[in-house]
Amino acid sequence: MSRRPAPALRALLVTSAQLVLRRVLHLVAAVWPTTRQVLVSGYPETEGNAVEVARALLERYDGRVVWLREPAGPHADLPGHPRLVTVAKASPAGLWAYLRSEAVFFTHGLYGSPRPSSRKPLVNLWHGDGPKATRPGQGAGSLIPSTWLVSGTRLFGELKAAAFELPQERLLVTGNPRTDQLWRMPASPALAELGITAPFVLWMPTFRATKQGDGFRAWSEGGATIGVAEVRPLLDRLAARGVQLVVKPHPLDVEERRGPGVVTVTNEELARVGVPLYSLLGASAGLVTDYSSVWVDYLLLDRPMAFFVPDQETYARGLAPADVLEWLPGELVGGHAPFERFLADLEVDGRRDAWLRERVADRVGLHRSRRCADDLLDALERAGVLRLRPAPALRTS
């Protein structure tokens, strides 16, 4: 019986393979003939930026749309379409599709992140705009080169572009495509299957420590371990108002935050009932988060927000801008505080702090749109990247 390599050795093997791919694919892609097809890859596979771009491409692009399937985890729920081709990411077919595509879209880098060529534009959809500093390392694929970088805000987009060493003119402030899901309400029976049977506040903390997985090692960004006990004052006061607290852990987070009185939903559970994460977000009455990028997208909804950051002194990852915690669009909460201002805003459906959210939306340069996937495709068409049909009417399902 063969034994699997130790995690550290697996990570080294993966990094080495990525380095080879990075160099070879850059050279080959520069001369390899392309066909009328595009490639889309998201991680996790249900990541809304990738899903919504694929959905929009199927409506407006007349070539094939190749979707790369992740080896594990929930799979994306894409519409059946004769031009949609699904292939395994870790396969010769995936590499062949990469070489043959006239444009590539990804959220976390792909195949070691080779440098783009003039023949193959690479569109970095990324996975949100937020205050956690993007500090690429020196390993294979860490810089994540691209031709174009997508952002939902001018401020955070310019910071990302600088981190990825991309000229500002290659920044597309067209909104995060996943926000299109905010306006598509999930069905009540699907929410009930998740245990959501009343108005709810969504708690979406970023990870402090990650799980160990195939091809990557566990790592920590410092900060305190924050579980259900730390938000008990909020949980009790929401329950007294007939409001549920729903927790959506980060997919990499080692802590799932399950406990009495809390409804915890994972990517797998959302996929099982057919509810995209951002549709769940759009159904919420308010948001509790921290350093996560989700609050930037949530500005589009103009609803109450609180920022629970009891680990300001120990959280190791840098924030950008450095003073961001001083001008957040909601109450900053530490320790076992009772979330007074947040709850007061909830009581009046967000009218109390609407002025504050508006001020922050202007400060970050929020792209305000209900059709960000189409806005992105329109920008790429104007840049000569793709030939597309006109956008259809606003999607509501």
TrEMBL record:
<keyword id="KW-1003">Cell membrane</keyword>
<comment type="similarity">
    <text>Belongs to the CDP-glycerol glycerophosphotransferase family.</text>
</comment>
<dbReference type="InterPro" id="IPR007554">
    <property type="entry name" value="Glycerophosphate_synth"/>
</dbReference>
<protein>
    <submittedName>
        <fullName>CDP-glycerol glycerophosphotransferase family protein</fullName>
    </submittedName>
</protein>
<keyword id="KW-0777">Teichoic acid biosynthesis</keyword>
<dbReference type="Pfam" id="PF04464">
    <property type="entry name" value="Glyphos_transf"/>
</dbReference>
<dbReference type="InterPro" id="IPR051612">
    <property type="entry name" value="Teichoic_Acid_Biosynth"/>
</dbReference>
<keyword id="KW-0472">Membrane</keyword>
<dbReference type="InterPro" id="IPR043148">
    <property type="entry name" value="TagF_C"/>
</dbReference>
<keyword id="KW-0808">Transferase</keyword>
<dbReference type="InterPro" id="IPR043149">
    <property type="entry name" value="TagF_N"/>
</dbReference>
